Amino acid sequence: IVHSYDVNCQYCRKIRTRFEKHFPDIDINTVKFVIPKWHASAHKEDCQFLYSLYFTPGVGCLDGEAPERNWAILNLVSTSAREMNTAHQHELLEDHMNDINFGHMIALGTFFLS
């Protein structure tokens, strides 16, 4: 499991104790904490090395920024979602994320034709 977050160098300091307290059956040693590539340059050199996606085996060309690209789109529905109950919020967000993914699939056709 790879956990990508822009402040993972701070976030994962006490993660072991948090997991032992709240999720005792999950092995935290199976989680690799990384900093997304765009955010890494703002960190100290030791953070850049320890949490870099460049030095993480098995992630390929992942940049760790994909979830943030969708925030701009999903923020537009937040006003509507605010008035809904939790189940409807979940349904609304899932519907919009499915639409984003469908758009990506359609764009792949053009990409492969070029």
TrEMBL record:
Taxonomic classification: Eukaryota, Fungi, Dikarya, Basidiomycota, Agaricomycotina
Record's protein name: Uncharacterized protein
Superkingdom per UniProt: Eukaryota
